[in-house]
Design a protein that fits this description.
Number of helices: 3
Shape: elongated
Radius of gyration: 15 Å
Structural class: mainly alpha
Order of helices and strands: HHH
Length: about 70
């Protein structure tokens, strides 16, 4: 595997991790404690993480496409 291939794969893995993180019990309990049970703000934070992870995925696919193409 070439060194140029590592960066797009890194972005893809980080994107998946960031998207899945709000679904973990640890994350939910920490956000529940931080926002004192405000469901709207917890959901807003989870959506922000989802969009950030999606941006990492798109960037990874774009780099991968440019590298392969």
């Amino acid at each position: 595997m070439s060194p140029m291939m590592i960066f797009p794969l890194f972005l893809l893995v980080v994107g998946i991790i960031v998207m899945v993180q709000p679904r973990t019990k640890r994350w939910q309990s920490r956000m529940n404690a931080y926002f004192q049970g405000d469901e709207r703000r917890i959901k807003q934070r989870a959506n922000t993480f989802f969009l950030l992870g999606l941006a990492f995925l798109f960037a990874g696919f774009a780099y991968l496409f440019r590298l392969v193409g």
